[in-house]
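Posting for a labmate who doesn't have an account.
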Amino acid sequence: MLIDFLQYPFLRYTFLTGILIGLIAPLLGTFIVVRRLSLIADALSHVTLAGIAFGLMAEKKFGLMLSPIYSGMAFSVAGSVLIEKLRTVYKAYQEIAIPIILSAGVGLSVIFISIADGFNNDLFNYLFGSVSAVSQNDFTSILIISIIVVSIIILFYKELFSLSFDEEQSIISGLHAKWIHLLFIVLTALVIAASIRIVGVLLVSALMTLPVAASMRLAKGFKQMIMYSIIFGELSVILGIVSGYYLDIPPGGTIVMIAIIILLVAIGVKKLQSK
């Protein structure tokens, strides 16, 4: 079944991009879930949608050759910075920053989509993912983002681990928590924007949380949880892309449903082990 993905260049780019996304999305998702910030992925995905809609609108209405992927990344990074700023404004209610940015993303998306005269096939692909939409430039961009993400996670693993489990103690010990957290949330924004070609804007947050939720039922430590999350993420993406291609449906839906099946199996295995 993988012969087509190895034979045709556009499918090969899709397959390789999916492998990269299956690595970096659960990798960052592990830290997101542990820090109880799962809704950040939803908020940034909606801001990314606003950026994509802006790019499509600029091209359709004003003839500007603005890549929706890069405009989506720009909006996503801007949204991540604004979330961090709002967290400092509402220090006692930091979680309110997430629905504020999510609401802004939805509102801007509706406006830009309306100005661009509604939905078209390109926007549909961005919403739910597409097997044939990944170009060589997209793959190169995601490869660069993947290298940056993995490198920073390795370099700042101790700091991120400390912030995830005891933020107050980390700050007291002199860790630059503000800058580490800003760096982390910007990385999250880039990963979300990079993943939309395969998974789709509306489903990308699931890839950052479902594999982690499954690994939490089986792992015996944090590093093991990261490893299981990546394995489950890769299984979901690879099987989802292949099945989506042969069933002729957007891969985002199949990726998420396979991730759900893996989660249910993990829950079942945990219950059997506890008996």
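Reply:
Got it, the structure tokens are right above this. The chain has one domain: 3-269.
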